[in-house]
C-alpha cells in the first residue's frame, strides 16, 4: 500500500472589510469533503500578519513534509476562482492586521523577483473548467502585494515550487461556501494528478 500523500491547505483570518474571510470558510468546507482516501489533508488558518507567516510556513513545510501546499485567499476583485501562477518578492508596503509591514518591502532580501509554481496553472484551469464542477476558474500572474502574495512567494521558496495559491471571491459573490469547497476539492485533485504525471515523466 502506497503511503498517503500529505496536502496542506490554508485559508486566512478576517481582515479589513472581510469580517468573514471566504478563504478560510472554503477551506473548512474542503476539510469536510476531503481529497479522497489516498490523501492526508491538513488545514490551518493563517494570520494576516507578515511576521506570523514567516514563523508558520517553515514549520508547516518541515513538520509535515507535504507533497503540496495550497494557500487560499480572498480577493474583493475576483469573480472567478483564480489560480495564481507565481509569487512576487517586492512591493509589500500595505500594513497587516498588526499594523506592521516589512522594512525591506520584500519577502526575501536576496530572493529572485518572481518564483513560479511547479504546477502549470493553465493546464489545471482548463481541466477543471471542462470537468463541470459548476464554478468558473481563471489564471492570474499576480497574487497582489499583500499577505496573499507574500505567503505564496515564501511558500514557493520553501517548497521548491510545490505550492499553489488560489484566490476566491467573497461569499455569495457569486459562490456559496459549499460551491467554493467543491471547487477547491476539484482543483486540488487536478493539481495532484498533474504532479503525478510530471513525476512519472521524470
What is the topological layout?
Elements: E1 5-12, H1 22-33, E2 39-46, H2 50-64, E3 68-74, E4 81-84, E5 86-88, E6 114-116, H3 121-130, E7 137-140, H4 147-158, E8 163-168, H5 177-201
> What ranges have pLDDT less than 50 throughout 5 or more consecutive residues?
none
Helix content: 25-40%
Per CATH, the superfamily is: Peptidase C15, pyroglutamyl peptidase I-like
Question: Hey, roughly how much beta strand do the residues contain?
Answer: 15-25%
Q: Which oligomeric form is depicted?
A: single chain
For this structure, what is the CATH class? Answer: Alpha Beta
Structural class: alpha/beta
Net shape:
globular
CATH topology: Aminopeptidase
End-to-end distance, in Å?
A: 22 Å
Gross CATH architecture: 3-Layer(aba) Sandwich
Strand order of the largest sheet: 2-1-3-8-4-7
Please tell me the total number of domains. Answer: 1
Number of strands: 8
Number of discrete helical segments: 5
Main sheet record: 6 strands, mixed
Mean pLDDT: 96
Please write the string of helix (H) and strand (E) elements: EHEHEEEEHEHEH
Query: Rounded to an integer, what's the Rg over CA atoms?
Result: 16 Å
GO molecular function, one term: pyroglutamyl-peptidase activity
Organism: Xyrichtys novacula
InterPro entries: Peptidase_C15, Peptidase_C15-like, Peptidase_C15-like_sf
Family: Belongs to the peptidase C15 family.
Structure description:
Helix 1 crosses helix 5, helix 2 runs parallel beside helix 4 and helix 3 crosses helix 5. The mean pLDDT is 96. The protein has five helices and eight strands, in the order E-H-E-H-E-E-E-E-H-E-H-E-H. The radius of gyration is 16 Å and the shape is globular. 37% of the residues lie in helices and 21% in strands. The chain has a single domain, classed as Aminopeptidase. It has 202 residues and is of the alpha/beta class. Strands 2-1-3-8-4-7 form a six-stranded mixed sheet, with helices on both faces. A two-stranded antiparallel ribbon has the order 5-6.
Amino acid at each position: 500500500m502506497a503511503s498517503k500523500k500529505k496536502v496542506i491547505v490554508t485559508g486566512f483570518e478576517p481582515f479589513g472589510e472581510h469580517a468573514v474571510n471566504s478563504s478560510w470558510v472554503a477551506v473548512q468546507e474542503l476539510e469536510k469533503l476531503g481529497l479522497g482516501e489516498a490523501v492526508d489533508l491538513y488545514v490551518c488558518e493563517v494570520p494576516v500578519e507578515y511576521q506570523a507567516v514567516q514563523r508558520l510556513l517553515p514549520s508547516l513545510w518541515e513538520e509535515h513534509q507535504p507533497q503540496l501546499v495550497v494557500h487560499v485567499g480572498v480577493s474583493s476583485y475576483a469573480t472567478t476562482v483564480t489560480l495564481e501562477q507565481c509569487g512576487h518578492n517586492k512591493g509589500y508596503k500595505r500594513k497587516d492586521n498588526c499594523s506592521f509591514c516589512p522594512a525591506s518591502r520584500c519577502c526575501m532580501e536576496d530572493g529572485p523577483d518572481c518564483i513560479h509554481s511547479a504546477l502549470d496553472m493553465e493546464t489545471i484551469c482548463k481541466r477543471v473548467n471542462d470537468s463541470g464542477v459548476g464554478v468558473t476558474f481563471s489564471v492570474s500572474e499576480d497574487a497582489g502585494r499583500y499577505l496573499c502574495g507574500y505567503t505564496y512567494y515564501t511558500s514557493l521558496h520553501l517548497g521548491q515550487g510545490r505550492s499553489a495559491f488560489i484566490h476566491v471571491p467573497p461569499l455569495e459573490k457569486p459562490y456559496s461556501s459549499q460551491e467554493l469547497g467543491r471547487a477547491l476539492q476539484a482543483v486540488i485533485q487536478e493539481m495532484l494528478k498533474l504532479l503525478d504525471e510530471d513525476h512519472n515523466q521524470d
